[in-house]
Amino acid sequence: MARPLLSFTLLCLLFLGLMSLSWMIWAWTAPDCTIGDSSLLPNISYYIPFCSLAPGLHLFASCSNVKDLAQTLTAVPQGIEALCLQGTVPFLPADAFGHFPTLQLLRLQLGTIRITSRTFQGLDQLRHLSFEHHAPCCLSLFLPPDALEPLRFLNTLSFHGYCLNYSQNIQLPISLRCLTLRHSCLTDLQELQGLFPNLVPGSSPTTRPSPWTSFLEVLDLSVNLQLSQVGSRALHGLQLRSLTLDGTPLSALDLLGSGLLHLDSLSLVATGAEKLPGNVSRYFELRALDLGRNQIQNLEDEYLLSCHSLELLSLHANGLQSLPSRFLSALPQLQRLNLSMNKLGPTLVLPGGLVSSNLRVLDLSHNELSVLPYRAFSSLPQLQELWLSGNNISNLSSESLEGLRWLKTLDLSWNQIKVLKPGWLSSLPVLTSLNLLGTHLEHISGKQLQGPHKLSHLQLGSLEMLEIYPPWPPALLSLEVQANVYIQFGVPSGEPFLFLENLTLQTSNMLLHSDNNTVHFPSLRHLTLRGCSPYIFTDCQSQRFFPQLPLLEHLHFWSDHEGTEDLHLFGMPRLRVLELGDLDFLSQPSSVKLEKLLKELPQLQVLALSNLNLGNLSASSFRDLGLLQLLLLNSEWALGLDSSLQELIPQMPQYVYFSDITFTCQCESSWVGPWATRAPNTFVYGLEKSICRANASDYSQTPLLSFLSGHCSHDAEFQSFLTSFTLVLLLTFLALLGCPKWPWLHHLRTLFHAWWWKFCGRRPRRQFHYDVFISYCEQDQAWVLEKLVPALEKPLPAGEGLRLCLPERDFGVGQDRMDAMVASMESSRATLCVLSRQALGSHWCNLELRLATYHLVAKPGIARLLLLFLEPIDRRQLHSYHRLARWLQKEDYFDVSLERVEWDAFCEQLRKRLRKAGQERED
Ligand SMILES: *[C@@H]1O[C@H](CO)[C@@H](O)[C@H](O)[C@H]1NC(C)=O
Ligand SMILES: *[C@@H]1O[C@H](CO)[C@@H](O)[C@H](O)[C@H]1NC(C)=O
Ligand SMILES: *[C@@H]1O[C@H](CO)[C@@H](O)[C@H](O)[C@H]1NC(C)=O
Ligand SMILES: *[C@@H]1O[C@H](CO)[C@@H](O)[C@H](O)[C@H]1NC(C)=O
Ligand SMILES: *[C@@H]1O[C@H](CO)[C@@H](O)[C@H](O)[C@H]1NC(C)=O
Ligand SMILES: *[C@@H]1O[C@H](CO)[C@@H](O)[C@H](O)[C@H]1NC(C)=O
Ligand SMILES: *[C@@H]1O[C@H](CO)[C@@H](O)[C@H](O)[C@H]1NC(C)=O
């Protein structure tokens, strides 16, 4: 008895070794990197270092303090879309990012770097590349001429804080649309010719490559503090949409001799300009001109007339005191005018015009305006947006807003509004968005908002208190209400907000004045609460402000640190994202609280907990983490992670972030170190930086991980977990290989399936390397190689050319056959088992069949198994016949016995089946 037991133990140990080895490989905790998916939590940048992304990109890795690039990158998952690197890396070798073929954005903040011609090889999909260095200006950067050539789809290229004056002849990809050279040491625009010869082909026609076209659309040269010259024909032949020269000492007039052929939009913010650049505007027929933060205090007629083509003009922060009377008639095309932060008050005088103005957007915020005279906007009949924030307006009447028949957006926030006269909105029939934050109003009734029929976005705010009463605007989709002391909804008979999707409330106290005691939000999807007491989600059904939120998906709740006794989230069956902050959980046993809180949120995918005083977390704090993809713990003072949490490791979400956490120094948490570095398929962020405290008066700043490794017996907890877990795996595996009679094995199997699902279902979807993995035994090899393979692999156009995986041919030399088999089955659309009597007798072939069967059962609908019989075999002889019979369909069996096969028909049928399998897997 002793001997078999010993060998069993040895076997187990061996297996254990293998398992932990493979886990090391799967782990993707990357020290110094944050890996995240910004589509899960839009606010994620608030908590963790983030890579600012281009629209449409979500999956990112942001690494800081990078010193050894190769080492940092080994831990970054392959499928990321954006990569930001900060640190000091002197040299970027060839193929430095070849592991990330899907990369679309790359931001490098690596100090003085050397780049080779082949550094960016393989980045076929890269669209955005930037080199950044922040103060002191500037580092020099050498780019070999052909360094950017592999980037065939590059769209934006940006250098910030780098001097390129050692580089010459850099070939820009012609897909490039935007080029930025900010904070660089350009002194003359002409230097661009030497740097980027295919951007500006130079003045001499002979150096011009014959079919030269201008491809760049946007050129940003802001904050080049020495850029004061424009050599002749410096931008020769260029046709730009937009040129930005903010913060340069360049005189706009110099652009006239630059050879620039076309320009729509020119930005000259903070260039010290005192006059409108009329000639430039006239020369290019400019459509947009941004002159913010200059000293243009007078708009003289002669310059104004030269600007007749402008559609957008910004004179933000120029100290303007008035507009000339010919302003609007001189600019007949003008659609957007930004006059914010000037001195046009106290009485608004807008110039009239003989021609009717086309102006759609007018920004008059922060202009010290007090009085809006009668028919103040009558010269602007087309106006759609009017921004009047931060003025001193107290009196509003329909007369002053008369004539704004097309006005959609009106911003009156932060004025001195104390009353709203009935009917004041009556002259704005199509208003959809109204901002009344920062008023002195104390009561607002829906009657005061009558007039517009389609008011959908409403913001109301008062400094102290605000009571609001129905009738609610009938088309309301989004409502924000702020008041420091309290907000009261007076809802005499429970009038519902029928279509409201977004609600934001910021106040200390929410009051409800109602005979019915309920306010209904049947369509609410996003709810944001700031400062409210948890009482708003009271246990007491009859007093609940939100009795049911059937469609709610996002709840962001920052409270005011009162107790949490009453906090109970229910009636939100669709809640996906829960952000909770600033509550005091220690007033209650935390495990009880969290458990209760999460109990009725079956769809939760994102849980972000911030500053809750959570205390000690244990397995009982969390119920079911089944669907959770992101768990974030932020800003905690004495967090303990109890050893019982290990039970939840198999269910841990894909992303676990600890940000700004001080742990309790306790050996109960000793499992977290090994977990964070070896957790399969969970990305854990922030433990390396966390410190722990022994008690309230311990200010020693001990790093958590060094405490755990120094004071706690060597991850005994985690090892024992690993051991038991591996045993479960092993036994399950053995169970699958045979002995199906032990009933308890069934439970283990279920457990294992859950795990397997978690692994496979959550992994970033991968490409299939193969169409079919072919399993056969040695005795049938000749038939397979001579008949089957040629028939299936027949290349295009003769056949469809299936990609086959044959163990003998496609497994790497020295690769463990078992590992390779599992991996190949995973990366094949389907597995085809070639069966003969000999095969069924062979141990190895049987194992492959069982593995494929297991795969099929563990991932129903995803894995595909096809059986090909070489000779007539009673199917009940198959080992897992009953299971197979349950999972396979008639079309999954192929019979080529008796030499009566028609190859073409067979192959066609097989292909059809595989195509179907492929589609099912990609769904
Ligand atoms: C993001 O989170 C912080 C606190 O964690 C909060 O103050 C802020 O309002 C949130 N922003 C949004 C847009 O939800
Ligand atoms: C590059 O620019 C810097 C800063 O203007 C200057 O000090 C340096 O001499 C320049 N080098 C070359 C080769 O022009
Ligand atoms: C710019 O325009 C003014 C008149 O508006 C004219 O006197 C002046 O010569 C022009 N300058 C250039 C460089 O074209
Ligand atoms: C006006 O310009 C300021 C400063 O650039 C900007 O913040 C503001 O959004 C602009 N207003 C509009 C309506 O675009
Ligand atoms: C705002 O307007 C009131 C009169 O309505 C006036 O007394 C006050 O001085 C004005 N404040 C500023 C800063 O212009
Ligand atoms: C409260 O109002 C809702 C909707 O208006 C109605 O369905 C419900 O019966 C009312 N309840 C009470 C107690 O009046
Ligand atoms: C509601 O808020 C979300 C997230 O901030 C936003 O994407 C959506 O457009 C908003 N919906 C409405 C109707 O304002």
From TrEMBL:
InterPro entries: Leu-rich_rpt, Leu-rich_rpt_typical-subtyp, LRR_dom_sf, TIR_dom, Toll_tir_struct_dom_sf
Domain of life: Eukaryota
Membrane spanning stretches: none
Signal peptide per UniProt: 1-27
UniProt KW keywords: Glycoprotein, Immunity, Inflammatory response, Innate immunity, Leucine-rich repeat, Membrane, Receptor, Repeat, Signal, Transmembrane, Transmembrane helix
Major localization class: membrane
Domain TIR intervals: 768-910
Compartments where found: Membrane
Classification via SUPFAM superfamilies: L domain-like, Toll/Interleukin receptor TIR domain
Family membership: Belongs to the Toll-like receptor family.
PANTHER family, per database record: TOLL-LIKE RECEPTOR, TOLL-LIKE RECEPTOR 11
Name of the protein: Toll-like receptor 11
Protein's organism: Ceratotherium simum simum (Southern white rhinoceros)
High-level lineage: Eukaryota, Metazoa, Chordata, Craniata, Vertebrata
